[in-house]
Amino acid sequence: MSEKYKKEIVQHIIRNLLDIQLLRIIESEPTWGYKIKKQVETEFNIKLRHGALYPTLNNLEIKGFVVSRKQQKDGRARKVYTITADGKTYLRTYYSILQGQLNGDSPQL
Q: What CA–CA distance (Å, rounded) separates 65 from 30?
């Protein structure tokens, strides 16, 4: 893989498919916004603004792809997100379409 283009492509994917990336992170374990932000920044070397993260999480919750619950930790309340069955289905559909694209298939709508 060409390191020259790797960072640019990863950043492009994260910025343009933020909802998919957030679902991938939440699928691995229930988590909260700040932890997601730090994980994206560490793993992908991308500054994830609160103004992009929280509206996307809220939208995923409105669509029924994640659910949140309040959790107390060291006297602080945080919103912990968990992926739903619909969220997993959405993610699997994305993977299927992506795999088809990699195989040279035309997406079927």
A: 13
Q: Are 57 and 66 in contact (CB under 8 A)?
A: yes
- Whether 13 maps to a domain, the answer reads yes
> With 90 as the cut, is the pLDDT of residue 104 above it?
no
Euclidean distance between CA atoms 79 and 72, whole angstroms: 9
pLDDT computed for residue 47 by the predictor = 87
pLDDT at position 1 is 59
Total domains in the fold of the chain: 1
> Are 87 and 26 within 8 A, CB to CB?
yes
Interacting residues of 51 by C-beta distance below 8 A, sequence separation 6+: none
Looking at residue 17, the DSSP 8-state letter turns out to be S
